[in-house]
Amino acid sequence: MATIYAVGVGPGDPELLTRKAERILRSADVILAPASNPAEASVALDIIREFIDEQRQQIIIHKFPMTSDRSLLVPAWQEGAELLAAHAEAGRSIAFITIGDPLFYSTFIYLLRLLREQWPHIPVEIIPGISSINAAASVAAVPLVEGDEKMVVIPATAGTAVIEAALATCETVVLLKVKPRYGAIVELLRKAGKEQQVTFVERVGSVRQKVLTDFEQIAQHTPDYLSLMIIK
Ligand SMILES: C[S@@+](CC[C@H](N)C(=O)[O-])C[C@H]1O[C@@H](n2cnc3c(N)ncnc32)[C@H](O)[C@@H]1O
């Protein structure tokens, strides 16, 4: 029986991988990269390419549909979990790679639940990764929270009412998944008078990294899927 690893590969810069993540990725027999968004899979694989040996290790890109429809997602999660379990039971160590951290808005969370329920005998080890939030705060030099301050993280898909409430109660609001609701978010931030407090970060840690603090530039930008906002 081999181990299933969930490896956080950080937000984009291979130097932000932990030493433990690098060691496990170099030694795993199989690497599984999720492709819920085609851009995400290639980012995760690009980050680790220098650490793996494609001649010796098997690389699998597994598709997860880009939808919130659970009738499509549940079978894809089941298939992913079965794949992980089958390799581990056959004695091949397998590493599921995930952008940022594996337990922070990652597909791995759903697979972990299935593994615990259906294959409780297979050892699972989770290697934390540097989240996009920490990396974005660092490149923009924005202190996230200090003293008694509170921070809330909201996937912008939760809706503008949730964001509005958070802006009124927390010193720091981090918005993930901003792309699908970008126009509405920009309007909300303008109405709330937060123009001077917004930092927009796209593709942090990669050659395509963009950091914007000028609100008009932010408003005119067309964001990538890998974009977030820090309102501080
Ligand atoms: C499904 S969540 C994954 C979060 C990831 N597990 C983490 O720890 O950062 C995807 C969202 O994270 C943010 N994100 C992930 N990688 C990013 C990057 N390199 N630059 C900016 N935002 C990123 C974006 O808001 C994106 O829509």
| Alpha-carbon distance between the two ends | 48 Å
CATH class of the largest domain: Alpha Beta
If you consult CATH, what is the topology of the largest domain?
Cobalt-precorrin-4 Transmethylase, domain 1
What would you call the shape?
elongated
Number of strands: 10
Low confidence ranges:
none
Strand content: 15-25%
Q: Which percent range fits the helix content?
A: 25-40%
Pattern of helices and strands: EHEHEHEHEHEHEHEEHE
Explain what the structure shows.
Helices cover 37% and strands 20% of the residues. By secondary structure, it is of the alpha/beta class. The strands form two sheets. It has a five-stranded parallel sheet with strand order 3-2-4-1-5, with helices on both faces. The chain has a five-stranded mixed sheet with strand order 6-7-10-8-9, sandwiched between helices. Strand 8 (198-202) and strand 9 (210-212) form a beta hairpin. Helix 3 packs across helix 4. The N and C termini lie far apart (48 Å). The relative contact order is 0.16. S-adenosylmethionine (SAM) binds at residues 11-12, 98-101, 104-106, 131-132, 136, 176-177, 201-205, 225-228.
